[in-house]
């Protein structure tokens, strides 16, 4: 019996008869996924797939997700019980860089148990990390010095958003803001969601740096924070920015301004 006759007898097409499954077709996808997971251990599927597309691969998201699940790379997230907000207030979205910076402190400890702090500065427009200052103590004078250092290459912001910490309500910072014509916007006590841009940045920084590494000295913290900040600004795709990095988003906004 010929192949054509046999296929008609069992009601299958000739391409199906001749089809040979490619058992190694996913090897390239596996290699790329494992390499990216090793380089970005804190990224979930969405950000990994965005980077895969940025690298030029045209694989379908369903295929990549299938391989991602088979490799058991899924990241488990602890579900939080969130109470519904009765009167949610949307946070303002800046229209250009330096319109508003958000600042905040974080704290952690070295392997020896000694506490240290980080002073984080974020531009609300493109979520760019402008500084992560690390030291055992960060008084108001140090905060001003960091802000002046950023302004030397970026310019001064129109507004600073912050909580009511002692360093932020100091007379020194108020005099500095008045001298440079910077508005100080304090959030309401007990409402950190009003400073959500830097709070979101803090969570990412803690998950991918502070909780992932064991530091023995401040120099190690500073080195890792500087390395991660470059990655955050130039490599990490942000969902809120249309899968672009903060650097790309700022460049697109600058080009659009010139076109207008």
UniProtKB/TrEMBL annotation:
Residues 90-254 form the Integrase catalytic domain. Residues 239-260 are annotated as: Disordered. InterPro entries: Integrase_cat-core (IPR001584), RNaseH-like_sf (IPR012337), RNaseH_sf (IPR036397), Transpos_IS3 (IPR048020). GO terms for molecular function: nucleic acid binding. It holds the Pfam family rve_3. GO terms for biological process: DNA integration. It comes from the Bacteria. Coiled coil: none annotated. SUPFAM superfamilies: Ribonuclease H-like (SSF53098). PROSITE patterns: INTEGRASE. This is Integrase catalytic region.
């Amino acid at each position: 019996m010929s192949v054509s006759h046999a296929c008609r007898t069992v009601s299958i097409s000739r391409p199906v008869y001749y089809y040979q499954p490619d058992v190694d077709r996913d090897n390239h996808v596996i290699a790329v996924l494992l390499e990216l997971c090793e380089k970005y251990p804190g990224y979930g599927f969405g950000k990994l797939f965005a980077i895969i597309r940025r690298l030029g691969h045209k694989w379908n998201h369903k295929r990549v997700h299938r391989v991602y699940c088979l490799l058991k790379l899924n990241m488990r997230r602890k579900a939080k019980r969130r109470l519904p907000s009765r009167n949610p207030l949307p946070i303002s979205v800046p229209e250009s860089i330096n319109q508003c910076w958000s600042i905040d402190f974080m704290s952690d400890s070295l392997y020896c148990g000694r506490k240290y702090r980080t002073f984080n500065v974020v531009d609300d427009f493109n979520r760019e990390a402008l500084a992560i200052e690390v030291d055992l103590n960060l008084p108001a004078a140090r905060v001003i010095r960091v802000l002046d250092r950023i302004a030397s290459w970026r310019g001064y912001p129109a507004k600073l958003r912050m909580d009511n910490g002692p360093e932020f309500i100091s007379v020194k910072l108020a005099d500095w803001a008045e001298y440079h014509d910077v508005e100080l916007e304090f959030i309401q006590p007990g409402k950190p969601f009003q400073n959500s841009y830097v709070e979101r940045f803090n969570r990412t920084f803690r998950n991918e740096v502070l909780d992932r590494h064991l530091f023995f000295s401040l120099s190690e913290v500073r080195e890792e924070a500087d390395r991660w900040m470059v990655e955050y600004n130039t490599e990490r795709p942000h969902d809120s920015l249309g899968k672009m990095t903060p650097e790309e988003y700022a460049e697109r906004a600058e080009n659009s301004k010139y076109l207008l």
